Every structure is written in C-alpha cells, then in structure tokens.
Here is the input.
Amino acid sequence: MAYGSPRSNYRGPIGKLAALPLFLPIALLPFVGGLLMCVVALVVDPYDVRPWGMAPRNAEGVYPQDETPNLIKAFSSEQHEAIMFGGSTSMPFPSRLIADTLNYKRVANLSYSLPTPRDTGPVLRQLVRTPGLRRLLIDVDHSQMRNDGATFVTGRTALSVLNARWFDMPDFKTPTVQASIHRIIDGTYDSPEWRSLRSNSADTQSLIDKPDLLMTLDDAVSRPAPDIFTAPRTLPPCDSFTFIRDVLLPVGREAQVQGVTVDIFFPPMPYQTYWNWQKNDVFFGSWGNGARYLQLVHFHQCIFRAVVVAKLSAVRVNATDLDTAIASHLENYRDSVHLIRSDAMARLLRDIDSGRFRLTIDNVDRYPGEMAARVRSVAGWRAPGQG
Here is the structure.
C-alpha cells in the first residue's frame, strides 16, 4: 500500500455475513411485536368477534368514549340486569349510581357520543338480547331526529365491530392489547390508564361557574330569535322519522319477545338552552321552521303514538325534560346540556322508575303546552351580574 492512500473499508462477503446476527434481531423486532399483538388479540378476543376467544370480562364503570362503541357486543355477551344507552347526555351516569338507584346488581352504561338512528338500531337490537336483561334505558336526544342516514365516528366504530369477521382484527391496537394482557393476568379487560381516566374524569365545575357559557345563554334569552315561540308551519309526519321505523319498532318488538322493559326518556336540559338553540345553529338535529323545542316535542309525541299504535306494551315513554327540579337549576349542569351532579342524575332515574313524567293517552296532547310554559318561564332570566 502506498503511503497516504486511504484505508479500505471493504469487508467482503464474509464480513457482511458476520454482521447479519446483529442486524436480523433488530429488523425482526417490529414483526415479532406485531405477531405477539395478534396472538393476544386472537386469544382474548376483547370485542367478542370470534367463536374461540376468552369469555368477556369487562370492568364496571365507563370506558374511554372511543372504546365504548367497540364493546357493545362484548357487554351484550355478559349477564346484565339493566343497560343504559344514549348519547352524551347519558354518558355521565355511573353504572353504580344506576344500579343503586334502581336496585339492580349488574348494570352497564354503554352510551357514546353522537349516536344516530343508523347505528342506534343495530346497537339496541344487539343489547336487547343481553342475557338476564330486565330493563333497557334509552336516552333519546335531538340527534335521533335525523333522517339523513348520517353516522359519526363513534357510530361507525360500533357498526364495524358488530359486523366484524374474525379476521378483520378491529382489536389490533396497542391500548386494546394492553387491556387484553390485563384480562389474562388479572381477569378483567381494563388498564391502569383507563382506570385513571375514570377516577379523574369528573368535571367538578358547573355551568354557573363558566361565565362564557352563561353569557351565551344570556344573549340568547335577552335578545332572542324572533321565532322562539312561533308554531312550526308544518311538521313532518310521524312515519317519516327513521328512528321510529328502524329503531323503536324493531327494538320494541324484540323487547316484548325477550321480556325486557324499555324505558325511553328525554334528557332534561336548562330551559335557557332552547332559546340558544333557536338563535344559534344546532348541527346535530333536523330542524324545520318555527320553534325548535316544539319540533322536538312533536318528535317525542310521535314516538309515544307509534308505541300505542304498534301495541308495544314493553315500551314506556318518559317526558323527563319536563322536570323543573332538574332543568331549572343550572348548577346541575356541566354546560348547557350535560348533567354533572349525581343527585340530579339520581332524581332523573327515580322519575323514570316512578313514572312521574310518563306519557299517556290522557296527557300526551298537553305536552307541547307544558314545555312551552317552561321555556317561557326563563324569559326574564339574566346571567349573574347582567341585570
């Protein structure tokens, strides 16, 4: 070698082969990790989509809202006496509170945000067949008025798992595998992160402590939309509602076959909220002309009348949105829609259990006037410090 010439780094075939033992384990790590995740998911089968998986063992309490829609089928494979299902207005209800108030032992709250008729129908038809089920509580909010066939990410998730085949692998996710390992070791599909979320999820600040929200309501009440009390010129016929055709009737009939009592209830909201809905756009409903709260009440009446016409003796309809002991107190709410106080939630459950606001042939025609009176009752309300 001449002085000053660069030293060759060429290692030849032998040198390359010698480096393979170091390279291969590193290169194979992602493959091995993915394979192990697949094995855990296939063995535990947390979403109950395979015939050979471990029996579902779900935790008591609320799962993260992006996980709950995945677990509809798994929960319906376990024994439960009562199940609550609805949208975000029923998500805050702890299953233990439902059990204690209604005197049941095994209860699940499987509510998730933004259900629509398209996903609510298949979900409820699955849940009504839950072993040992005695009662199904269905929270019907304004998103169930939709007739456009829309569904949102939570609903699409629920449908994908309900329709999944064993090889679709909807459970091939790191958090799911972590919770599945917990199922193998400790017997419950859960994780420390999810338990921490449950224990720290309570919003202790009520609506009365949120000035921005209060000012929005104040503006809607003090400078209202001109049509806040205008009767709608036309109302859709009852048989045009997708919820009635695709959810209420098939679920109600299946409930009668299964011997399950169905309690439909309408979430009580601050009466100021209806003023806000009239003035500001509410995306998740199907609104026509005139007062929106009257359109919502019409939808509720249609649900009741469909129950009567179809002779669904297992289904009861509760106009709990009339309960002023809940809806007239802003401190009961986290925001303009969602309850926060457990005593208000317990009262709502007692309203359902006692039938205090249950619609009947004798009172259903008075319902619109009673709601209108409650909405009018806050006409002089102002946010603290605004008059």
Remarks:
- The beta strands are 82-85, 107-109, 135-139, 261-265, 315-318.
- The CA atoms of residues 70 and 158 lie 6 Å apart.
